[in-house]
Amino acid sequence: MPVIQEPVAVSLEKILLATDFTVGAERAAAYAKGLALRFGSTLELVHVFDPSVATSWVAAELEIPPEERLRQSKDRLSEFEQRIATNGIKTTMLCRAAHRPAAALIEIAKEEKVDLIVAGTQSKVGIERLVLGSTAEQLIRSADCPVLTVGPKAKMPAAGPLRFKTVVYANDFSPEATKAAVYAFSFAEDSGARLYCCYTVTDEHRYGEKRAVLDKGFQEALKARIPQSSYDWCTPECVVEHGDPASAILDLAERVGADLIVLGARRSSFWLTRIERGLTPALLAEALCPVLTVC
C-alpha cells in the first residue's frame, strides 16, 4: 500500500500568472500576488495573444491588424504589471503570439522552470465548460508543475501574504493523488491550517448494511497515507463522503470553510470530463476557493 512521502517545505521561487485581462484573471492575480508575498516568489506575468481571435467586437468591426492588437496587448500587460509590482514583489512579463495559448503557456512554464501556474477560470454555459479560451483545462491536463485555478465563485483573498486556514485534500488513492498530497500537507503545515483528507464513495448503493464498516475501512486507508510528522503540527481529519465526487468535495469544502482544495489530475483525462472517479469541471467552476491540481 503506497504511503505519502514525508512532505517537504513548499518552494515557489517562480510563479507563472496567466492573464487574459478579464475579471477572472484579476481574481487569479490576487492569489498569485498573495503567494508571491508569502514565499518571496518572482511573478512571471504572461499573456498569450492569439492573432486569429478578435478579443472584442470593436477589433473585429474595425479590422484592427494583428500587429496593432499585439502592441495593445503588450501595453495592457505593462499596465497590469504596474498594478502587481507593489510591496516589493519582483515581476517579469512576457507577451507572446500563438494560435494555441495553452501549449504556449506550458512551453513558457518549462522554459522559465516555474514552480506553479496560476490561472483564472470562468463558466461559459452553466458549468460544462471553462474558459481562458479553455486554456485552464489544458493547463491542468498537460502542465509539468502544479496548477492553481481560481474560479468565478472563489472569494477574494485578504491583502498581504497568503496563508490557507483550511485545506481539503481529495484522495482517490491514485498515484496522482499521492503526488498532490505533498502540496496539500506542505501548504497546510506552512500556514498551520486545518486539514481534511477526503475520499468519495460513488457506488454506495452496493454496500447496503456494510456501509459503516466500509466507510471505516476507507478512513483507515486515508490515515495510513498521512505522514507521521503531520501529527506534530495538526490532527488531520479523515472524511468519507458519498455521491458525485465533484458535489461531495464542494459540499465538504463549503461545510468546513475551506480556502484551498488539492487533488490529483490524470493526464489521460480529456477536457477534464473525467478526473479519477468522475470528477468534472464542475468542481473548478463552482468552488468557493482556489483548486490546486497536480498531475
Description:
By secondary structure, the protein is of the alpha/beta class. The chain folds into two domains: 14-150, HUPs (Rossmann fold, 3-Layer(aba) Sandwich); 166-294, Rossmann fold. 38% of the residues lie in helices and 21% in strands. It contains nine helices and twelve strands. Strands 3-2-1-4-7-12-11-8-9-10 form a ten-stranded mixed sheet, with helices on both faces. The protein has a two-stranded antiparallel ribbon with strand order 5-6. Helix 1 (23-39) links the parallel strand 1 (14-18) and strand 2. Helix 4 crosses helix 5. The two termini are 20 Å apart. Residues 56-62, 125-133 and 268-278 have low confidence and may be disordered.
Give a short summary of the structure.
This protein has 295 residues and is an alpha/beta fold. Helix content is 38%, strand content 21%. The chain has a ten-stranded mixed sheet, sandwiched between helices. Strands 5-6 form a two-stranded antiparallel ribbon.
